[in-house]
Amino acid sequence: MRKRGEAHSSEKAVVAEVPTQSRHAVLSADCLEVLARIPDGSVQLIVCDPPYNIQLADWDAHADYIAWARTWLAEAERVLSDTGNLVIFGGLQFQGEAGSGDLLSILHHMRTASAMRLVNLIVWNYPNGMSAHRFFASRHEEVAWFAKSSGYFFDLDAVREPYDEETKAAYLKDKRLRPESVQKGKNPTNVWRIGRLNGNSRERVGHPTQKPRQLVQRLVRALSFPGSVVLDFFAGSGVTARVAIEEARHSIVADVDPALYGYLEKQLEDLDGVVYQLSSELDADHPVFGA
Question: Into how many domains does the chain fold?
Fold first, then answer.
């Protein structure tokens, strides 16, 4: 299997050895404590939904948000493999909150202080949200995708969207297009229309900022491969572990809030037919150590 950044197909991607049992470490710990235990170049994908400095929680005491964020950003870069990817969820703050720490702050830091490459800024567009009267109501968040090197892994075929039947029929008649490419479907672009989870969603596990499974699934499918390691050190609702299990990836998920254990238990209640192993420790035989 080619794991470099050239074109990939889902057929080639599954040539990688699919584990008969995926391994998952679930930890209640600070992100830096977890990162310090992970070897250099051992992680394929980091899914990161960090807290932001918006005067709403205990971590608003950081006088300089980036002084804190740069510590885990540097460690994230260290643990990524040469084909590895880092995705960071976030948004832009406006009016009085601007400059207090947001995704724009991280983007600026990464552009000026990191060797990682910004591959895409993905717009997560959702139909539901807060109303507004003094400005246009916000209906999107951003996902910044960084790569460790130019040889990053990307499996577009794993996340293509089907054409509608009318468009597909027209494209199949177009002699300039390859039929096999048309059959695969289209690039989903960097604007993803995926609804946020409402209060009645069956996916809900109780975490206030839980991300939709479909959103995380697309990232995991495109930016990692079966048997690789996915890391989430701001794990929140545990959705990354759930998706990693479904997609035959190994994972390490951590959060300072021990409520992660309860959230993950709910995440896995309806998961059947998949063989996996959970541990509350990062054991020496976890695949991240090359076991």
Answer: 1
Mean pLDDT of 192-196: 96
Q: What is the pTM of this model?
A: 0.91
Collapse the DSSP code of 143 into the 3-class scheme (helix H, G, I; strand E, B; otherwise coil) and give the result.
strand
In angstroms, rounded to a whole number, what is the distance separating the alpha carbons of residues 48 and 37?
18
The pLDDT, as a whole number, for residue 210 is 95
Does residue 268 belong to any structural domain of this protein? no
Indicate the DSSP class of residue 29. Answer: S
C-beta separation of 228 from 3 below 8 A: no
pLDDT at 13 over 80: no
The CATH number given to whatever domain includes residue 179 is 3.40.50.150
The answer as to whether 94 is a domain residue is yes
Number of Cβ within 10 Å of residue 98's Cβ equals 11
**CA distance linking residue 113 with residue 168, whole number of Å:** 45
Residue 99 placed within a domain: yes
Determine contact, residues 29/283, Cβ cutoff 8 Å: no
Determine phi and psi for 79, rounding to 5 degrees.
Answer: -80, -15
List the structure tokens of 167.
Answer: 């468009």
| Residue 211 counted as domain residue | yes
pLDDT tens digits, 230-241? 999 999 999 999
CB 227 within 8 A of CB 17: yes
Cα dihedral: 56, 61, 64, 70 (round 10): -80
Range of the domain at 45: 10-20+40-224
Question: What does the CA dihedral 54, 55, 61, 66 come to, rounded to 10 degrees?
Answer: 10
* pLDDT of 1 higher than 50: no
pLDDT digits (tens, 9 = 90+) for 47-83: 999 987 654 444 444 457 788 899 999 999 999 999 9
CB count within 10 Å of CB 138 equals 13
Cβ atoms of 93 and 52 within 8 Å: the answer is yes
- Distance between CA atoms of residues 261 and 267, nearest Å: 10
